[in-house]
Sequence to fold (425 residues):
Amino acid sequence: MANDDNNVSSSPPGDPTKSSDRTLPVQHATPWYRRRWIIVVAILLLGLFLLHHFTQSPQQPAAGRAQQVNPAITAAPARTGDMGIYVTALGTVTPTYTITVYSQITGRVIDVHYREGQMVRKGEPLIDIDPRPYQATLKQAQGTLQHDMGLLAQAKMDLQRYKDAYARNAIAKQQLDDQAQTVVQYEGNVKADQGTVAYDQVQLEYCHIVAPIAGRVGLRLVDPGNTVFAGSGSTLIVITQLQPITVVFNVSEDDLPQVQAQLQGDTQLPVDVFDRADAHLIESGMLASLDNQVDTTTGTVRFRAELPNKGLALFPNQFVNSRLLVRMLKGVTLVPTVAIQHNGTDDFVYVVKPDNTVSVQNVTVLTTNDQDTAVQDLNAGVTIATTGFDRLENGAHVTVRTPAQRQRQRQAQSRPNTPSSMASQ
Fold:
């Protein structure tokens, strides 16, 4: 029994710690990961509460302010005027004539008379080739011609004598006929000699190359001392005519009917040519012709306009923007282009009424450019809103400001705060 008592309690009597462990119930601590999830959930709930508070509470004052302040806009009156219907296209400047000069004889170049890029007149000398071999050949042909002409003259005199003798029955008829054919033979020789002389004269003229047209020469392609050969295909000079000059541009086949309708009579359609940026007018001319078929790859027709090019501002192969005036609209209603609004396929404007309210007015656009638009279904004289469209609706009250007032307001808003304004604040 003593052993059993010893096994039951080995702690010394009177130890309070050990006795409490035996009598009190065991308490388990909360795990650490459960405490972390509780904190996370609490933070999320607090964040949702703050987000709801700050997004919902300011809406009512903002709506109140929108109802109290009328949107400020600028406006312009619709007016009556003229506007043309144009067809625009990208064009290429093309010389009226481009001449490539080759040598038609073989010889040595002895002189070049032009400067690179020079404007030359028709018939002005350009290049000289050594003429001495051709002068000698011409003299030889002229000598042969002179010899044969002498023989022909002698044969004609003998023929006359034979005719007189035959009239007196002094010679036979055969002798007279033979002399007549001799004259014919000499006449043939003279004609052949004349042709040789004419050919040699042309060859001699080829030694002096002159400008076939008036225009501008290109870069020099041959220098004095070089030998050129007939039929070699070596270019000696290129001349392009610049006055007048043409512009070739492609027009959509959809625009072809209205252009052809204007060309039925003797009407000439004006063409304006602008630079590549389509900002500056370079030259104005007239439509000269159009191609006889539609390009199936692009669905366009080539048009050619002729322009005087007085200031030589147009250069061959230059890219330009062409604008063809098809028809002029007289006495139509014009509004600023910025005033036209679009709703799908419909066009409309905001009309400002005398009580400073706006109403939506549907219009039909006839033609437009960067500044003005010609419309139907709108009377001239009404006031049209030109800004502030994002705040406009049918029946809305507005405050109309002039463009100058709006510009001053923008400048005031963009101007940095001055010491006086900061002090007032």
